[in-house]
Amino acid sequence: MGIFNKILIANRGEIAVRIIRTAKRMGIGTVSIYAVDDHQSLHVSLADEAVLLEGKSLNKTYLNQELIIQIAKKLGADAIHPGYGFLSENAVFADKVEKSGLSFIGASSTQIELMGEKNKSNDFVQKLNIPIVPRIKGSINNIPDFAQDLSFPLLVKASAGGGGKGMVVVEKLEDLPHAMKQAQRQALEYFGNDDVFVEKYLPDVRHIEVQIFGDGKGNAIHLFERECTIQRRYQKIIEEAPSISISKELKEELYQSALKIAEAIKYRGAGTIEFLVDDEENFYFLEMNTRLQVEHPVTEMITGLDLVEWQIRVSAGAKLPLNQSQIVRNGYAMEFRICAENPMENFRPTSGVVQKIRTPNSSSFRFESFVSEGMKLSSNYDSLIAKMVVWDKNRQTVLERIKESADEFLLTGITTNWAFLQQIIKNKCFIKNEINTRFVENEIEQLKGGLVSERQQLGELIPVIAYVLHHFVFPKNETTNLWGNSGYWRIAQELLIFVDEKPLKVSFKNQIEGLNFLIKGSPISITEMLPQENGYSFKLDNDTTTVVVADTQKQTWVQYKEHEFKVRSNHLMEQIVLKRKHESFKDEKRYHVYADLFGKIVETTVKPGEQVEKDQLLLIIESMKTEFRVLSPGEGVVKNVFVEAGSTVHDKQLLIEFEVENKITINA
């Protein structure tokens, strides 16, 4: 069979962009599909053809199996690539695709049904004498009756899930019914299958996975392992390849176990066998992902292979491009998942419009994303917006490289976890590789404290200097200056510059050797000022400092040592902010619950007139595929409920109003 002429990508986001780029390089036409809130995504503009999916729910858009197949056939596609998530591990969809005469770029429907459904895969793997995690199967109604057979904590998991979706840790028996209901709801929404099960939660373990590839005829190879231990909310945020955590002997045992599974089912395409490994190198089969993984680029970086190309060729009937002896590992790679979230607020999803994007200009860095400048993020999908992958000769040099270049990355307009990820790689336990899957949970206060103290130590000095260089020494657009570049500084002796809305009085004077500043009354001198591609460099106290600078609406973003500062002044026309009078309502005798994130109401549990107790559940908000429970801050009577299940909510929107004697205002 020849190579495909055109493929439809049944997905969105960075994985759709990733597939399109490989297909284009191979000379294959591409069709993207998109929901209306994804119209600015790069996967829409990069594809040869793009089709809008009408509807607001996932079942109407990215999970609409019949419509997706219909579009593929109408536009003359030969195959459908499902990416990861959504329909990628849906056996019914894979079967429908192939029965329609199209090729499914992935595992066969029978393989997905067997290995993509976790209960079935555990039963199968156990028969191959590969150890599994102790678990309980059953219905959502009867599992709690058997939960005492396992010691707590327990982990509720979606049978058809992946990527951390539909997973809830339960510490005590009374919380199990709610956790199962939550996992079931997420599983149905994201995977179209609400089956769940319960297994023993193993907190002090490492997460090691093996990338495998099969030709569908019983032949399979592995492409080594990946370390995926650093996670938050049971979802990976840093991945490495290869792993330095386990012995060569255990690696070989994991390879052989993975190949045993692949060969036993005559696996076709890319797949990943995931294991948990304890301190004594006991290992347990966790699951098989019958698809491409989010973290596949780290494997590509150390092998020099394109796994998407392999997927396409094998699905078109070709043999495996290489045999095991021809696959060579070179160097070390680390992937950072950049998410739109605020780690300082329990990883709360964040909203906004992407303003400026800057990435390191080096072949050792690989940046993958679907966002573009001016794009507004949607709350209907998970918070992953980009991946930064770094390669070097070993783990130590990778860490050195990313630390040296961390401040060359800039993504402004929204709050992300980028600075938090940099705190992780500076952590002593991480550097020593003394980690487990609860690393972030155990180190969270130290990591957040590091963010705060590091930012305080950086202070406002560098952002102010960068701002002056950007606007008044090396101005890109002289018309933004209120008075023009000439003559203004003879009448404006002092500037008022706001750094994160903190006002600072600043004056400066040009000297032959540089600039002399007076900032908050303290003299500062800089020399050797030079414009850089995305910012400026200058020498301060004999040390060369480099900053990244970008202008966005109403303000300037300055990034220094991976920390972002919002800077503005009323000396630039477009940054002037007029003061407004704030009114207060001191006589109000009720308190309000406001949303502090954007998302969708999943469930409301109270009604007007109802008496509630402290910490009683009021409602559940889903934002970027994460559920947030809003509890009552105290006793009271509900006066009004302004939302219902299915309502879309925005930041600072009023949700619930209570009647109490004293006014208390809280955020959800």
Folded structure, characterized:
Mean pLDDT is 87; it is low at 478-492 and 580-589. The chain starts with 5 loop residues before the first strand and ends with a strand. The protein has an 8-stranded antiparallel β-sheet, sandwiched between helices. Strands 22-23-24-25-26-27-28-29 form an 8-stranded antiparallel beta barrel. It is α+β, with helices and mostly antiparallel strands and 668 residues long. It folds into 6 domains: 6-105, 3-Layer(aba) Sandwich (Rossmann fold), CATH 3.40.50.20; 134-200, ATP-grasp fold, A domain (Dna Ligase, domain 1, 2-Layer Sandwich), CATH 3.30.1490.20; 203-330, ATP-grasp fold, B domain (D-amino Acid Aminotransferase, Chain A, domain 1); 338-454, D-amino Acid Aminotransferase, Chain A, domain 1 (2-Layer Sandwich), CATH 3.30.470.20; 459-575, Glycoprotein, Type 4 Pilin (2-Layer Sandwich); 590-667, OB fold (Dihydrolipoamide Acetyltransferase, E2P) (Beta Barrel), CATH 2.40.50. Helix 4 runs antiparallel to helix 5 (109-116), helix 5 crosses helix 6 (118-127) and helix 13 (418-426) packs across helix 15 (439-458). 25% of the residues lie in helices and 32% in strands. The protein is globular, with a radius of gyration of 27 Å.
